[in-house]
Predict the structure.
Amino acid sequence: MTINSHSFPAVEFKSSTFSVPVLSIASNDLILIQQLLDEKIKLAPEFFKHSPVVVDLGEVNKKQLALDFEDLATVIRKTGLFTIGIRNSNEAQQAQAISLGIPVNTAPTSDVRVENRKPKPITAPADDEFVGSDSTTVTITKPIRSGQRIYSFGDLIVLAQVGAGAEILAEGNIHVYGTLRGRALAGVQGNTEARIFCSDLQAELISIAGNYKISDDIHGAIANTPVQIYLQKNTLVVKPII
Amino acid sequence: MARIIVVTSGKGGVGKTTTSAAISMGLAKKGHKTVVIDFDVGLRNLDLIMGCERRVVYDIINVINGEATLNQALIKDKNCNLLSILPASQTRNKDALTLEGVEKILEELSKDFKYIVCDSPAGIETGAHLAMYFADDAFVVTNPEVSSVRDSDRMLGLLSSKSRRAERGEEPIKEYLLLSRYSPTRVKSGEMLSLDDVQDILSLHLLGVIPESKSVLTSSNAGTPVILDEKSDAGQAYSDIVARYLGETRPHRFIDEKSGFFRKLFGGK
Ligand SMILES: Nc1ncnc2c1ncn2[C@@H]1O[C@H](COP(=O)(O)OP(=O)(O)O)[C@@H](O)[C@H]1O
Ligand SMILES: [Mg+2]
């Protein structure tokens, strides 16, 4: 096959948007960072495996703590995460990043902050998608389909149903204004105060801070009534919302 | 620019090929130049349903490999000259289907045709992915049973995340429900899910209900899309579906048990 017999280009730039988790670094203690990362990842290993991250150095730089980016990148790489960019970095860190082949985001700090504080409505979540960053609320307006997985670093609000075989996870609370048929896990980083609210509970599994119930244990009598689920002395309590 | 419709489901044997044949014929009969593509490489059977199996010379893989031009591979339908068929290959490996190859074919067809109907294979692997990747509209064919509904739900998830429109952040694919092989009698006896049960899970825009019908088999044996059998219930259901898709309003039928002749006669509801 000769190249010039075809009119289509071999290389083409296309614009596309991705949702990538941001890892915010607030300390220059690499041992501590490694420990904390290992702990977080242990809670959802499949989720973090080979996941891309953007490293945000805003906090550590604000505290004027000296941080060698090359060392940090090594620590992050060891956990299985891939650093695909840095932001809120200083010149030295940028030079190090570029020499490691990691892109540098020069977006002004203030813009980034404002964006992160707002709830992010996501209408078309991808499979195995991380959504949100920091502790923002994620709002989903379309049904979450079987096989889809949503993760929020803060609260998660779903204004539609969650299909059987779908999985929603949040570090904070979960609200489902529709039928919950899939799996819902709140407080996945250990927040025992987290709650799940839904208007019709038919879930395959519900969990708060690692304490879970499967559908067989959730009694059918409460179907079709709005309920809340919370932890009381390490047991899940399912109660109608009056 | 053509409108690309994928007929998909996740599960096999639910009526995708039957639907692809019927609606492509329906669109052509309404005066729109239409092409229907069989993406089921290795298990081609759209050509059988369309009754053109003896006229297949080249197929989609030949075109992708540059062994034939698109015009050589396209088969003109015997009943309607506005309809063409691009058959799948029966012999090739399904890996021969490539994203670039499919994109190029769709681009070329777009210049000439108003509607491009893609008959998806079952599953969520390469063939199914390529059939839906470039779609503008998705006809999700579902049977009133739990496993089919679950597979459709899964496919809807993929449509909203793994398509070109999703990846480019464009307006999402328009999704329509086609509930097929529906038997009100079996719904009533509890053997099948009802339309309401299905909609409770999928909440999709309903394009139509296609009844379980002997005419489907008769038509496929004869090699004519069932929509041409204007007297049959399934044929009428598909005519309604095409009309609704094109913007006409038609009341839904075939959802309740026949309010047939005898019932009317004896004053039943
Ligand atoms: N409405 C219907 N009533 C009765 N049989 C049907 C109907 N739709 C499809 N079938 C039958 O079901 C089988 C599978 O249909 P097909 O269109 O090939 O499904 P798919 O392409 O999804 O695998 C075929 O034997 C077909 O004749
Ligand atoms: Mg088929």
